[in-house]
Fold:
Amino acid sequence: MAKWVPSGELDFDLRPRTGAASGGAFTRESDSVVAVTIAAPARRAGSLSGAAREDMFVGYLFVLPTLLILGTFLIWPIIQTFWMSLYNWDLLSQERTFRGLQNYRLLIDDSDFWLALRNTVYYSVGVVPTQTILALLVALAANQRIRGRTFFRSAYYFPSISSSIVVALLFMWILQGGGLADWLLSLTGVTPPRPAWLSNPNGILELLVQPLGWSLPEWAIGPSIALLSVMMLNIWSTIGSMMIIFLAGLQDIPRDVYEAASVDGANSRQAFWSITLPLLRPVTLFVVIVGVIGTFQVFDQIWMMTKGTAGTTTMVYKIYSESFGGGFRAGSAAAMTAVLFAIIFVVTMLQLRFFGRREA
Amino acid sequence: MATVAVPRRQAVAHTQGEEEGPQIAGVVAYIALVLVAIIMFVPFLWSITTSLKTNPEAAQFPPTLLPRVLTFDAYQRVLTGAPFFRWFANSALVAGLVVLFRGLFCTMAGYAFARMKFPGRDALFMLVLATMMVPATVLFVPRYIVVLNLGLVNSLNAMWVPFMVDAFGVFLMRQFFQSIPYELEEAARIDGASRIRMFWQVIVPLALPAVATLCIVAFQGSWNNFLDALIFISGSNRDIFTLPLGLAQFQNFYYTDWPVVMAMAVLTTIPIAVVYLFFQRYWVEGVTHTAVKG
Structure:
């Protein structure tokens, strides 16, 4: 049995070989082979219906587990979300009462919901551009031909593979009052924030305008120091995987494009702005979309580090506290889930529309 | 299959900045890389050294990197204060089952979607693809109800049954199978092999590198899965906890006892670090595949 040996690691572009290697060579050999090739189509035509029937049967058999699992644990829950959002249910009893759109209507007046939404937007707007730009810079640096390149890549990626709980613990230790972060800050002469990072509810915009004697309305104080701390953690732990994606994109840019540019007298800065960046556009789009979807789903770190206190309640944390985290209002939580779905969908579509179109 | 060669990307890698001031660009890049590496590594390094400190020393300000007195006391307290091995075994069992079934089911579905003709195939594939866009994390409330109705809540089964398949895996495998030449299957067919035999004897051996990528992604997801553990099994007695849930609960009890908490964190990280060291290549491929080629 011939074994296919991959030429490179996971080289997916193994194309059917053409020319003499395929069937064409047979007919020239001898009459008997000609006879075989003539006979073969007839035999295959006869067995094709059998093969087709087999394909149909085996095909369904092969996709059945996938459809069953995805249907039960993903597609059905999606449908359930919308259905449940019309009911009142405490997650424990058998009793469910129909409420129509009441759960949605109540969200409009729920200031905690708006706070969660606002925090999620802060989170996303703060984290995604920062991690995208940093990851690109790190990828550009790691794409240089220098010693230890592989080591650096592995090192950067390591936080991405670690458990979110472990990473949260590391940062809880770093950010505790009198911890590493405070010490590093005090070395630069800056007074560490009090209360300590993760328990500090003061908004950063508020802190900025405070010296001027101004005060801001509650909704405009900006993300709290605590939320900012979790955002920093998120940036730190995600840069690695974003960098790997950028690196792959960088290495897919054909070398001759740069050579042609340098023949035309372009320096490396010009090459970056007019070759690298435009050609990376699809990859950047992917990184941004994945980043936005990821930040809209942040939960583990919030649960672990602040339990939603000090101005760190985000959408998924709010959905959790509305349901399992003590609220036991499954209908209302489902309504929030539906709203979050809609937001993620619209934001993703907008990104595809505005940033995806100009590519190619 | 010991034939996997050098990562393709590195083989064809090119570098920038060679044309103009290669030394300066190189030095700047190098300093930047070292700085970032320090930022990435220091928290882990410090967690290891903290786990080897005595309690008073760990609470010192300013914090010291290296322990003055080296002690394994914290590790001993983890192993006696929590059913660590139990949690470890639970996590390993669950991750093993997820990897096994996901490897199998995604490969089967990917092959069927790539190579077999049956009515509704493309529509079904689009459906699978569409689920990739859904932020599944958010679904824990309705998912809980399904898991509850199936009688899986507060049992370890809740941690692997729902995760036996994921759309990304199916997509990855379909991409892979589309790149395999038809001749191999035709040869097997002429030999009279059935589809199923062909699948096991020709297709699966070819697909092993891609399956490895798939399995790594599955392992990482399962090993680190916290939210589902919190929703599905945190109400049970702690003997069926998985490691992330156990670690989170452990921290609740020992929250000021940093050496113990860090020791537990280190023990939780070691298995995934080992897997990462051995299978890095597949891991990276899993991350980049959809982004660049998808």
Q: What stands out?
A: Chain B touches chain A through 132 residues (CB under 8 Å). The domain at 78-293 of chain B is CATH 1.10.3720.10 (MetI-like fold). Confidence is low (pLDDT under 50) at residues 1-20 of chain B.
